[in-house]
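Quick one: structure tokens for this chain, please?
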Amino acid sequence: MARTESNMLPLGTIAPHFKLTDSVDNTKKSLNELKGTTGTLVMFICNHCPFVNHVSSELSQLAKDYISKGINCIAISSNDIITHPQDRPDLMAKYAINEDYIFPYLYDQTQNIAKAYNAACTPDFFLFNADLELVYTGQLDDSRPENDKPVTGKDLRAAMTALVNNKAISTNQKPSMGCSIKWK
């Protein structure tokens, strides 16, 4: 299993806007429609990645814990579906339903949005404040497939809790790690 680290987009970067198709309901959704009142978590994930599968239930729980606090969550898959057909939008929809995702799971067919966010791996996390300024880009936690550390979401949860409570978010952020995005 190849490991790729996230590129760590500079803090303060304004979230690149997008309008992508939601794999579950097949409607176009924009960042402006989906952003939260307190913050917005944009996650680059995919169906087949063992790193994503390892943390998927925590991603579902994160949304359930923070949406009511004003942080909306958005997942995007940017993988090339020619080389990785298991990441097709119809299978994304099934994955989202099976994983109990209460957030949109969008398909970035052109890969332009992944490039705009400088996304490198799955999972790759970008937490923005109410003004869509990047405040956290790092790992979910220290757990990885086969390292026997429990999935807690502690790093990302700490940033989200600080954002909700209007507290400073540590700038000491560890890169996320996962499978590389499958570029065309």
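Strands lie at 4-5, 19-22, 28-30, 39-44, 71-77, 105-107, 121-122, 124-129, 134-136, 177-180.
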